[in-house]
Specification:
- The chain is mostly helical and 561 residues long.
- The chain has helices spanning 3-6, 26-50, 57-71, 76-87, 89-98, 102-107, 114-142, 150-161, 166-187, 200-209, 219-228, 230-254, 274-300, 302-318, 335-356, 361-389, 394-411, 416-450, 454-482, 494-511, 521-528, 530-535, 538-545, 549-552, and strands at residues 193-195, 214-216, 259-262, 265-268.
- Helix 5 (89-98) packs across helix 19.
- A hairpin with a 2-residue loop joins strand 3 and strand 4 (265-268).
- A two-stranded antiparallel sheet has the order 1-2. Strands 3-4 form a two-stranded antiparallel ribbon.
- It contains 24 helices and four strands.
- 71% of the residues lie in helices and 2% in strands.
């Protein structure tokens, strides 16, 4: 047994696997769905501001424990475990909506309806739950001493600590943040983003060296550091520093006479605004790093993916163990239901794709095969990433699928604007599947460690997923109306901007939209930074490369180690 294996303790569940408990009731369903709706709104805003989701397990666990203490619940522990599991569906579905669908507004597409946007998120979320259930026994039980599941283990420890008193601390800190944001946003006592150019020395520095720094003072970003962790936040911040303090000055130095087109006017790069240079050129370095990191990560895990998929498929067709002979903590949704559900979700998406975007059965068939194969492969990669590191590169893996989809659908005759939207909807479907499969596996690890019934958790995760999928699309539309995703004062939406740029360039490259060919910066940077992506956390560094420095500067100092 290796040292890493010895560090993972055996399971000692609080709930006895041989006893039955009242785990699901109206109290659990109400509070679970209530917190799911609340955190869909809160975390959805953060997704579009910084391009990253935040797990809801810690605040929901503390709030649920505090509620149980106030209401004097007799079966508090079992109920709290399932409340936080249902509520987690809020953050599990957000990636599909917030990372991809805003690209429609960035392109100026306004004729895609709410229903058209919600269907891929709903189907992708349900598919993610089913794929997670298929692989649960392998990742959670059989590989217990191999996969540490840092986020799932942390959630279980919070629940088993039973410290409901922390709810007071959370409510107090939330009240302070509310007052702070009211003073900042409503009274306007100071600017939310403080820039060095606000000072004379900063303006002179920017004019002479093209160096510009900023810090966003939003309370949500300061608090995000505690969830992100020191190492992750430091790497992302380093990527942002690299873009703004190294790459941007180099671009100005190397190509001052390059002509840029800004607001219909031709401007020399030397006279262009720093942010415009970042958006048009430097940001593509991060996109390229992210794309290459996703491709390399998938290839490096190809053997693991093949073994796990093979074992799971064999279990569906050869399993003869009846549920009666299983302990309560080993019961899942029946394998026959899982297989039928996976096929149904994929077929329903193919039907949706056929009537909304496809021009032939061949195009529909290509899309069906891509989402079916990629959902299996990328879900396993995402789950493995969550199991090892506690984080999941949804956007990086989805980029891999976008590239394949663009090539295959173009070969099948799909071109133009419809092709771009079709690929984006496939990306939102797969992105939701990956996000749900990986994050929900952490919840099933919580069930394994606490002694909760996985079958009940799986059933109600589907209910929460459908609700939050609808809410997430609604939140995205509301935030577009309030802030927008294009312009100086719009939400950054870094993930969506990256996807919009990638889909557009791929469409120009393969489909020749309006006779245009893309700037090949994304593909050049993918190759150029492929080594960096592999050697030094390129996916995380790439996340910082394509985000404004003001977003990650406040996150880094407040990250806990």
């Amino acid at each position: 047994m290796s040292d890493e294996t010895r560090s993972i303790p055996p399971v000692e569940p609080v709930l006895d696997p041989k006893k039955d408990y009242e785990e699901i009731n109206s109290y659990v369903v109400f509070w679970g769905l209530f917190y799911a709706a609340i955190f869909t709104l809160a975390v959805g805003y953060l997704c579009l501001k910084i391009g990253q989701t935040v797990d809801a397990f810690a605040p929901v666990s503390v709030l649920a424990m505090g509620t149980a203490v106030i209401l004097k619940r007799q079966n508090a522990f079992a109920e709290t475990v399932h409340i936080q599991a249902i509520a987690s569906s809020s953050t599990n579905t957000l990636a599909g909506a917030m990372f991809f669908l805003p690209a429609l507004y960035i392109w100026g597409v306004t004729d895609v309806t709410f229903t058209q946007m919600a269907i891929p998120i709903i189907l992708g979320g349900v598919l993610g739950v089913l794929l997670c259930v298929m692989f649960r026994r392998y990742f959670v039980e059989e590989m217990h001493y191999v996969y540490p599941f840092p986020s799932g283990r942390a959630a279980a420890e919070v629940l088993m600590s039973n410290e409901g008193s922390k709810a007071k601390l959370m409510l107090g800190s939330g009240l302070i943040a509310l007052v702070y944001d009211f003073i900042l946003n409503s009274l306007g006592w100071w600017e939310e983003v403080i820039r060095t150019t606000a000072f004379k020395w900063g303006t002179a520095l920017a004019d002479q060296t093209k160096l510009n720094a900023a810090v966003d003072t939003d309370a949500a970003l300061l608090g995000l550091g505690y969830f992100t962790g020191l190492r992750y936040a430091a790497i992302i911040a380093a990527g942002s520093f690299f873009s703004w303090f190294v790459c941007i000055p180099i671009v100005y130095f190397l190509a001052p006479e390059h002509v840029m087109h800004i607001n219909g006017q031709s401007v020399l790069l030397a006279d262009a605004p720093i942010r415009k240079v970042f958006l048009d050129y430097v940001r593509h370095i991060g996109i390229g790093m992210l794309a290459m990191a996703g491709i390399i990560g998938l290839l490096s895990m190809s053997k693991v993916v093949g073994n796990v998929v093979k074992k799971a498929v064999l279990d569906i067709f050869t399993s003869k163990t009846t549920e009666v002979n299983l302990l309560r903590t080993q019961r899942d949704v029946p394998t026959s239901w899982i297989g039928a559900g996976i096929l149904l979700c994929t077929v329903l998406f193919a039907v949706y794709f056929h009537f909304m975007y496809s021009e032939s059965l061949a195009q529909t068939g290509v899309a069906f095969l891509i989402v079916l194969i990629m959902s299996f492969l990328l879900a396993v990669v995402g789950i493995s990433s969550i199991a090892y590191t506690g984080t999941e590169p949804v956007s990086g893996m989805t980029i891999f699928m976008i590239i394949i989809s663009a090539v295959c659908l173009t070969a099948a005759g799909m071109t133009g604007k419809v092709g771009m939207i079709a690929v984006l909807m496939m990306a939102s479907f797969i992105g939701t599947t990956i996000g749900m499969a990986g994050n929900f596996m952490s919840e099933l690890k919580v069930a394994h460690m606490t002694g909760a019934t996985p079958k009940k958790m799986e059933q109600w995760q589907i209910v929460g997923t459908i609700l939050c999928a609808v809410l997430s699309v609604g939140v995205m539309i509301l935030l577009n109306g309030a802030y927008g995703f294009v312009g100086d004062h719009a939400l950054n939406a870094p993930q969506a901007n990256a996807m919009a740029a990638l889909c557009h360039e791929l469409s120009c490259l393969f489909c020749h939209i309006d006779g245009q060919y893309p700037d090949d910066s994304v593909f050049k940077q993918a190759g150029l930074y492929g080594g960096t992506a592999r050697l030094y956390s390129g996916r995380k560094c790439g996340c910082g490369n394509r985000r404004p420095v003001s977003v990650w500067l406040p996150v880094r100092p407040f990250s806990k180690g």
